[in-house]
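Q: What would this complex look like in 3D?
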Amino acid sequence: MSGKQLEKTYEPKQVEDRWYRVWVEKGYFHAPLTHPGEPYTIVIPPPNVTGSLHIGHALNNTIQDILIRWRRMQGRNALWVPGMDHAGIATQNVVEKQLLAEGASRETLGREKFIERVWAWKGQSGGTIIQQLKRLGASCDWSRERFTMDEGLSKAVREVFVRLYEDGLIYRGERLINWCPRCLTALSDIEVEHEDTKGKLYHIRYPLADDPNTALIVATTRPETMLGDTAVAVHPEDPRYRHLIGKKVRLPLTSREIPIVGDSILVDLEFGTGAVKITPAHDFNDFDAAERHKLPRLAILNHVAQLDPKSLKAAAVEEAFANEIQNLPVGKARSKVEQTLKARDLLVKTEDHKMALGKCYRCKTVVEPYLSPQWFVKIKPLAEPAIKAVEDGRIRIVPASWTNNYLGWMRDIKDWCISRQIWWGHRIPAWYCTTCNRTAMAETATSTPSQRAYTFLATAKPLVGRTAPVQCPTCKQKEFIQESDVLDTWFSSALWPFSTLGWPEQTPDLKKFYPTSTLVTGLDILFFWVARMIMMGLKFMGDVPFRDVYIHALVRDAEGQKMSKSKGNVVDPLHVMGQYGTDALRFTLASMASPGRDIKLAEERIEGYRNFANKIWNAARFILMNLDGPRETVQPKDRPFADRWILSRLNKTIRDVNVALDQYRFDQASRHLYQFIWHEYCDWYLEMIKPALQNKDSAEAKLIRQTLVETFETLQRLLHPFMPFISEEIWQTLPHQGESVTMQPYPQPVSQWDEKEAEAAFSILQRFVTLARTGRNVLNYPPGQKLTLYAATYDQDEFSKLVALKGFAEHMARGSVELTFKEKFLANPLPSGALKLPDGSLTVGVKVEGQVDLSKAISRVEKQIAGLEDEGKRISARLGNQEFKDKAPSEVIKEQEERGRALGSEAATLIDARRQLEQIASQNPNLQ
Ligand SMILES: [Zn+2]
Ligand SMILES: [Zn+2]
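A: Here is my prediction, written as structure tokens for the whole assembly.
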């Protein structure tokens, strides 16, 4: 007897805090290099330092923790590497908002001071998500926590950048970015707010070069940028124009001739005139089209969105007209172009047109696509080995159905633009000699006299190195300006599996734990992150970064809608952990994590699993109350029937849970646990042993107590990865060896526990009790009322088993049982006044007696039949729906078909019961 007791009700909060502290203090989550077990490693998808735990994190980290705890208990050297991402733009925005509130800005502060300020912010309020992960029970090795901007990881970033550059895999080129001409800064996509505005669609005549009397009519919302056109596009299947593809048009207001190209991506047959201009330097879609057709880019606007004189000249704009419009802002230039086209009879018409205009989130100025020099990774040479690694199975994607998405995307991959025009991040380790690059230097208008800033055109020659250069190798001058751009946040997270383990140093950690075992991630970052980790791992470690990639679903609301603050349908994990307990949330998420299906999460589900936790708690209390007395161990085969049966069922559950976890079927694993604990262990086993435990000193009670300890202690270990807190609290009160369930071996099947015979006998008992309960329900006998039961079977084996289990049958069905063996073809010998319920060879009779209201019973049965029929109709409608059959996973279809069959046989039983009740009623008018 352990002497420990459990509180009357389970109070998750105090249990969770207490145990988490102990686990960390004892160092259970630390993976020592000296551990003899085979390593099992997971690197966490680093949450943003600005982040707060949302339900997607909760799912992602619950799954990782289940895997890590399971492997740790299996004796593997389990390492879960935690850490955070510096989240360039998101973090910069947080700090900029603070500055704005103080009436300052990052420009007034200057780069260095601003970065200091961000670090200060990180120290004070960054990383709350780490505390929240701890609340979730995450068993990360906190001694190995990393941050993408810490010293070691920054070193890894520089090293990778330099080596890629030296290998010719990093280059500078031009690219369109979002630019605010008032704030004079680049904006990320999320910083551009789109607003519906009334604009105009201008229909402009572009005469054919070889036949000026014929013209293509081009529809555009931005006539002023036509000066930068480098082609006109039509749809290649448009019968009106397709014969013109390859010919040229004379671009109005200029002396240039530009080609007509066919492009089915850019041109929408239904829109405008079916012909559109291509202005690569001033439109994102046009930029891509220009890439496809290898067209030049001509920028005509400068950084303050005015028409630039030099550029107008380069674009061969008619000199007189150029003089008229140079240095005009966009809006004025547009009217000038419109007037001039009209005067020359080149404007066919204008019409009103609604469009979404991008505006700066800070100042609401219209954002311009702006051509600027950027850094790129040449990706094809890196992608090829990454494709191969998945094709040949060195990396396995689970569920496998996502493999083709990965391969398709990788085969079509575009060069990766890695530079960002922000300050918070890894500054690109490139420097420009101010002497050699004088002609490629453009002073940016941000520069106040005190802060001179430059951008370097794509033609500038950078010096790339691990440290700043001392002397220019070309001109021997010593004045340099560092590249002002920082790297895309995904650049550093692409190195995460090896940078966190110490690379570029050849550390013992790196040797032991790389390649990692499993990566757990959502589909949304398969390309942003997973693909890039694979490319970088293969390039710099010569091996894959992980063996398995497990992709989990998205969590949506109960109706399947995306959760969002504005819709008010967000399930906050912190709130539900507080309300229902962390284990309930974890178990809910695990039980819903079926492959490839979005999770529709209703709070009631979590409440349901809170009840499951309470069920376990109550079982523990019952067991503890009955452990008082000696225990005796004998071979499983020599134990009482119920014990043999439950050991066998527990064994099957152990097998099923391990197999399910091996296959990343967290849904199945948790279903096996739930079914076993609730419907077998609590509903049957604990009930069946109650009578025997009454006599504490009996030999049977001694054996049962031993089985209770063995099975329930095993169950806590089996449950631990899913519900770490309650399992630890209960395990500690049971007789046990060792300090914590966290470090105990995970249950493995024990062959001596298998008892086919006991399972077969139990299923007969269960059939009997189920029929008796149906009878009790049909006749509306209260649960406490003793029944008079009869059973007849023509199966000899069944009969002898029932005879042996008569005591259990009477206890579980609550009644007296009279058993009869009958020959198969003889009439049923059960008394005529009983309601007879058949199930194959077995028929159970429930005597109709006492205060039974037959007419009430009949109408209740009718209602139940109608209910079953309704459900049956809904299922057949669903199964008859082709769309459902095409879309639903085969498991769901199977489940529905099975439910349909079960409904049919339930209804048949009730229909027959109704017939019998009517008959009994007519024969016994006194019972109505
Ligand atoms: Zn702005
Ligand atoms: Zn130089």
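A: To summarize the key features: The chain has a mean pLDDT of 91. The pocket of zinc ion (ligand 1) is lined by residues 180, 182-183, 360, 362-363, 365 (CB under 6 Å).
Q: Very helpful, thank you.
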